[in-house]
Every structure is written in structure tokens, then in C-alpha cells.
Design a protein that fits this description.
The model is unreliable at about 225-230 (pLDDT under 50). By secondary structure, this protein is α/β, with parallel strands linked by helices. The longest helix is centred in the N-terminal third of the chain and has 18 residues, at about 70-85. It has 7 helices and 9 strands; from the N terminus they run βββαβαβαββββαααα. It has a domain at about 5-95 and about 190-215: ATPase, nucleotide binding domain (Nucleotidyltransferase, domain 5), CATH 3.30.420. Helices cover about 35% and strands about 25% of the residues. The protein has a 5-stranded mixed sheet with strand order 3-2-1-4-5, sandwiched between helices. It has helices at about 35-50, 70-85, 95-105, 170, 175, 195-205, 230-240, and strands at about 5-10, 15-20, 25-30, 60-65, 90-95, 110-120, 120-130, 140-150, 165.
Length: about 240
């Protein structure tokens, strides 16, 4: 089995993971302002614990987004640097898919809705289905592609099995999701983590979906990152009147 080093910094939690055979080692650190400083020391700790060099890995995976603009750029940039230096492929993994896998591993659900707080009164969301049998039981099948919208506009498609839901979007916008069937029992503490990024990257790599370091790109869903002071006032006024 390939050895995967994974990096995830799309939210307030920065994490690294090393997947070797059936062993998963992980480190994490909170605080978005420290992500760029904490990742490389955690990578070094993981490699030392496993007794491996970076060149022993088969690929560098990263949470490509959606998520924090700075966070996904940080993960992509570090992954590119490590992959280029070691002559390894990079494997971008959608953060919502990583959340969905974590939800599946916790609940056993085959159909999962992942909802991540995107700030500015919006959420990132996607819907996935997992095959409950076979060697690829943890492979995500995209039902609804990653999207950005107001919480009230989240509209999952009918699922063949009970739809499990996860992500901090459910606590950030609890009022907007109140009364929605899929929000009942949502695992709001499930967030993107390098552990699931590594597991999905192994599947992606098996299908030849690794890319050259220079070709690795973040996934952005929001075209406009910054607002003027007047626009912020208008957004806040709209929220207050909602």
C-alpha cells in the first residue's frame, strides 16, 4: 500500500496525518494564525515517529477546499513545496468529502451531507454516497457537487438511506436549519481533518488522480474574498433584518 502524507488547514484546526499500510498517525493544532508555523514541525514529528523520510512517501495529499481562503492556500503551498522537493505527486482532496468520510466512520451512514461554515452568512456544502460493500467502501461518490449558498438554500437530493449530516454550519446557522429533517442529529463537531484526507488520497492515487506539484490547485467557490466597508455594512444590515 502507498504511504501518504496529508496536510489539512482549511479551518481553525490544522492537522497532518501519515497513512502507512493500516496505520494512521496524526497531529493537530488549533489557531488559524499559527497554521503556517505549525504544519512543518508536525510533519517532521510524524515522519520521525514512523521512522521514515519524506522520500519514503508515495504522495503528498492536501485539503484543497472549500474552506478558509488563506487556509487552503497554505495547505496547497506546503504540499507543493514538499512534493516538488521530494519528487512526489500531490493529491488534492475536497475538504467536504473528508468531512463526509469522518461522518460515515462515526455513524456508518451511506448517504452524507457535509455543511461547512463559509462565514459572510453562507455555507459550503456537498452530498455524498458511500458504497457499503467491497474494497472501496470508503470511496466517496459525489451526489451534489460542492456549492456555496445561504444556509436556507441547502437542498440535498433524496437519498436511498437515511441522510446523515455533519459540519459546523449546523451550529453557526442553527436558526436557518431549524426544522429541516436532515439537520436532526447532525454531527456538528465533524470538521476537515488530515486523517480522512490521507484515506481518500490513497483511493485517488489508486485511480491515477495524483498531479504534478506545480499543477496542484486549491478549490475556490467564492469569487470575491474581501468586501468594502460599505458592503460589510449592507451585509450586516441585511442579516439584522432577516
Amino acid at each position: 500500500m502507498p504511504i501518504i502524507l496529508a496536510i489539512e488547514t482549511s479551518s481553525e484546526l490544522a492537522s497532518c496525518a501519515l497513512l502507512c499500510a493500516n496505520t494512521l498517525l496524526a497531529r493537530s493544532s488549533s489557531g488559524v494564525r499559527t497554521h503556517s508555523q505549525s504544519i512543518l514541525p508536525m510533519v517532521q514529528e510524524l515522519l520521525a515517529e514512523a521512522g521514515l523520510a519524506l522520500s519514503d512517501c508515495d504522495a503528498i495529499a492536501f485539503g484543497a477546499g472549500p474552506g478558509s481562503f488563506t487556509g487552503v492556500r497554505t495547505a496547497c503551498g506546503i504540499a507543493q513545496g514538499l512534493a516538488f522537493g521530494a519528487g512526489l505527486p500531490a493529491v488534492p482532496v475536497v475538504t467536504l468529502a473528508a468531512m463526509a468520510l469522518a461522518c460515515r466512520q462515526h455513524s456508518g451512514a451511506a448517504d452524507v451531507l457535509a455543511v461547512l461554515d463559509a462565514r459572510m452568512g453562507e455555507v459550503y456544502w456537498a452530498q455524498y454516497r458511500f458504497d457499503n460493500t467491497g474494497a472501496d467502501a470508503d470511496a466517496c461518490h459525489e451526489v451534489v457537487a460542492p456549492s456555496l449558498c445561504a444556509p436556507g438554500d441547502v437542498a440535498p437530493l433524496p437519498a436511498a438511506t437515511p441522510l446523515a449530516a455533519c459540519g459546523n454550519g449546523f451550529t453557526a446557522y442553527a436558526e436557518a436549519f431549524a426544522g429541516r429533517d436532515f439537520a436532526d442529529g447532525a454531527l456538528a463537531d465533524v470538521m476537515p481533518h488530515a486523517g480522512q484526507v490521507a484515506q481518500l488520497a490513497r483511493i485517488e492515487l489508486a485511480f491515477g488522480r495524483g498531479v504534478k506539484a506545480a499543477e496542484a490547485q486549491p478549490l475556490y467557490l467564492r469569487n470575491k474574498i474581501a468586501f468594502t466597508s460599505a458592503e460589510r455594512l449592507a451585509i450586516n444590515a441585511a442579516k439584522a433584518g432577516a
